[in-house]
Design brief:
5 helices, two-stranded antiparallel ribbon, single chain, 2 strands
Length: 116
């Protein structure tokens, strides 16, 4: 299974390198369309190789998706934390009640009651 993973990663690397080498031509990446930039008086642009634009878009999409999913699952993590705190509190209460019940009894019998 480990070799299959290495073979997949190697193949993916070869494909990404070949796509990158085939798309080295520079492209102009602009923040806004020309008309809007002229109206606002602010234009930001950069000349980058095409493969950087494509791979950067893929990476940006992955990061946005991970953050979106993390935010979406927040309520589930909060509920799990509340349940964990409730379980701990109930366990402490049960232990306190067992100690109170076993007061004045023989220690061996109290241990047997606690275990069972």
């Amino acid at each position: 299974m480990r070799y299959l993973r290495y073979a997949f990663l190697g193949t993916l690397g070869v494909v990404l390198i070949s796509v990158s080498l085939a798309n080295r031509a520079p492209v102009e990446l602009k923040l806004m369309p020309d008309d809007l930039a002229d109206l606002l008086g602010f234009n930001l642009s950069a000349s980058l190789p095409l493969f950087l634009v494509v791979l950067g878009g893929v990476v940006a999409g992955l990061v946005i998706g991970f953050v979106w999913e993390w935010l979406r699952e927040h309520k589930h993590r909060r509920e799990a934390g509340a349940k964990t705190r409730e379980v701990r509190q109930l366990e402490r209460e049960v232990n306190k009640l067992k100690k109170k019940q076993n007061e004045g009894r023989d220690e061996v019998l109290a241990l047997l009651d606690e275990a069972g």
